[in-house]
Amino acid sequence: MHQSVRGEASGGLNEVAYRLGCDAYARRLLHKGNRAQRLLAILALGHLRDAAAWDDLLGVVHGSDSAASVHALWALVQADAARAAREVAPMLLQREDWAMSQLANILKDARAEWEPVLAEAVAGTDQEQLPHALRLLAALRLSLPAQQLRGLLNHPVAEVVSCALRLAATPDLLDEVRRQLGHGDWRVRVQAVRTLGQLGDHSDVERLRRLLGDQQWWVRYRAAQALLGLPFLTPDDLAALQQEDMDRYALDMLKQVRAEQEAA
Predict the structure, then answer these.
(1) Please, are residues 124 and 99 in contact by the beta-carbon 8 Å criterion?
(2) What is the pLDDT of residue 241?
(3) Sequence spans of domains, the chain
(4) Which positions ≥6 away from 192 have C-beta within 8 Å?
(5) What distances in angstroms separate CA 62 from CA 65, 87, 90, 98, one per listed residue?
(6) Is residue 154 helix, strand or coil?
(7) In the chain, pLDDT over 70 holds for what percent of residues?
């Protein structure tokens, strides 16, 4: 019934459920029920925002059952988003079995509580787990403070830099993004080009044009996409760009991406 009501009606439904002892019954099912009953109990306790079940739900979150644990996370966020962030954020950055789509749905109304706590958790994440943690933040459309990202953009591990670039689409980091265009790892250059396509100004046209001649196909492809996606370039500007001294690979890439955009 909870899925069909909102606001005050939901609160009223919870009052009735508590008077009927549904909370106690759900907690018993969580302890003694079969798997299906336990999943149902987790959903019920989440809708009830039952603080008394907190420790039991937290135990499920730390368990190996992916479906049960991610639903228990949802129940904790429903009960107290700020407390859930403080107690679960470090583990969330390490779990690779939770679907990004589910996490995005769980945290969509709790960004204010989770974002600063996740930023702190990222700072304490070991190097091996750091790329996954950064990819998770990007997928959830959560951000990190600019100063923290500056440090990550200068990390010695290329994969960390590449993942940090996904979060760096802010004007405050434009110079740092530009510096990564010359990175020795082509995967970093690809992500730098993609980010620059979102932030770049007129001075970046020449930077992107040069990357049309990169040795790596993906760098050339993303550079062409970024160029053709710059909102301030007119058709005449793009035509003039193609008349400049370019090798055939650069011209072919521009033509290919333009054809893809026209066909879309």
Answers:
(1) no
(2) 77
(3) 178-264
(4) 165, 177, 178, 180, 181, 183
(5) 9, 11, 11, 12
(6) coil
(7) 93
Q: In the predicted model, is pLDDT for residue 206 greater than 80?
A: yes
- With a CB cutoff of 8 Å and minimum separation 6, the contacts of 171 are 199
CATH C-level class of 178-264 = mainly alpha
Which tens digit of pLDDT belongs to each residue from 91-141?
999 888 999 899 999 999 999 999 999 999 999 998 899 999 999 999 888
User: CA-based angle 171:250:247, to the nearest 5?
Assistant: 130
DSSP per-residue codes, 65-98: -HHHHHHHHHHHHHH-HHHHHHHHHHHHTT--SS
User: What is the token pair recorded at 176?
Assistant: 């740092």
93 with 125: CB under 8 angstroms? yes
Residues 61 and 38 sit within 8 Å (Cβ to Cβ): no
Residue 8, Cβ neighbours under 10 Å: how many?
8
Token readout for 25 is: 């019954």
DSSP-derived letter for residue 3 is G
| φ, ψ at 147 (rounded to 5°) | -65, -40
Residue corresponding to tokens 């407390």: 83
Query: Does residue 233 sit in helix, strand or coil?
Result: coil
- Residue/partner pairs of 210-219 with CB below 8 Å, 24 or more apart: 211/181, 212/246, 212/249, 212/250, 212/253, 212/254, 213/246, 213/247, 213/249, 213/250, 214/186, 214/189, 215/186, 216/186, 216/189, 216/190, 218/186, 218/190, 219/186, 219/189, 219/190, 219/193
Tokens at 199, concatenated: 């932030």
